[in-house]
Write a structure and sequence with these properties.
mainly beta; binds 6-O-phosphono-beta-D-tagatofuranose; 282 residues; Beta-galactosidase, Chain A, domain 5
């Protein structure tokens, strides 16, 4: 199979399907510049997409890899996770050869974004699909005459068979802010973290690769540029309050997010910042 990119309809959305040489594929939607699916060559879907996700742009799509910018979560006065998740993005680049398929989508400021956040910017997401690997890079340009500061994330929803059976290694010893427990600061003391309840944690300067083991599947997770790792699972009660999640949806997902959350990034006029998350099926 030749690597390729084709335009497809995905739940009524205009999207692009990337195919890699030995059958891996990914789908990226123009709404939100959001990766919506990643299937490795063994045919397994690696990203969670809620069966109740809405694709009409009225709310962000629950699942895949939402792009949060220029605000992470509720750390400011902007809409939660910023305003890029419900914008239409445009294709800004594509290429492929025997080993990879690459697609870039971009969006820039307009009147509606400047009404919320008075800055000129360009955000670009670049997705590179290889045989057993997906790299997603977020690049931000400050196109205005003044510096601006932002927080943000690649809010990756990983699909797991059963979240209670996973183990996540690589965070031992890092301090985290526990948003599920009054923003207390704690230190991770589990070499292999397991999820047994609501989890909403921001690990600061967590600069080691992570290993997610879920049944007989292992996934390596690595990030550059983003200083923080955020873990999120809403568990039973919060999941029940999310209209775009099935009641048992939380069992099949774990968000492992590459974030710049605790410390805003300040970008001088004309400068660029980028951060990347790499997912490797082992
Ligand atoms: O990244 C974790 C988080 O900020 C959680 O606090 C949780 O609310 C989640 O994101 C989902 O946010 P959303 O706006 O997509 O419902």
């Amino acid at each position: 199979m030749k690597p390729s990119i084709e335009t497809i309809d995905f739940h009524g959305l205009e999207a692009l399907r990337l195919t890699a040489p030995r059958g891996a594929s990914a789908v990226v939607g123009k709404l939100g510049g959001q990766v919506l699916s990643w299937t490795t060559r063994d045919g397994r879907e690696r990203l969670f997409l809620s069966e109740r996700a809405r694709f009409d742009g009225s709310v962000p799509i629950r699942g895949g890899i939402p792009v949060c910018f220029p605000q992470f979560s509720s750390l400011g006065s902007l809409p939660k996770h910023g305003f890029l998740r419900t914008r239409q993005w445009q294709v800004s680049g594509q290429s492929s050869d025997d080993g990879y398929t690459l697609l870039s989508l971009e969006t820039t400021d307009d009147e509606s974004t400047r009404a919320l956040w008075p800055h000129a910017f360009r955000a670009e997401v670049t997705v590179v699909l290889e045989e057993d690997r997906l790299d997603v890079e977020l690049s931000i340009d400050n196109l205005g005459p003044e510096p601006f500061s932002f927080t943000g994330a690649l809010h990756t929803y990983l699909r797991v068979v059963e979240v209670e059976d996973i183990a996540l290694a690589g965070l031992y010893g890092f301090a985290y802010r526990d948003a599920a427990d009054g923003d207390r600061i704690r230190k991770e003391n589990s070499p292999e973290l397991i999820v047994e309840g609501e989890i909403d944690r921001g690990y600061h300067n967590a600069n080691r690769p992570l290993l997610l083991q879920a049944g007989n599947l292992s996934l390596g997770i690595h990030q550059e540029g983003f200083p923080d790792v955020v873990l999120w699972n809403p568990w039973v009660d919060l999941c029940a309050r999310l209209p775009d999640m099935a009641p048992t949806g939380f069992r099949h997902m774990l968000c492992v997010e590459a974030a710049a959350a605790r410390q805003p990034v300040t970008l001088a006029a004309g400068e660029n910042w980028s951060g990347r998350q790499s997912l490797v099926a082992l």
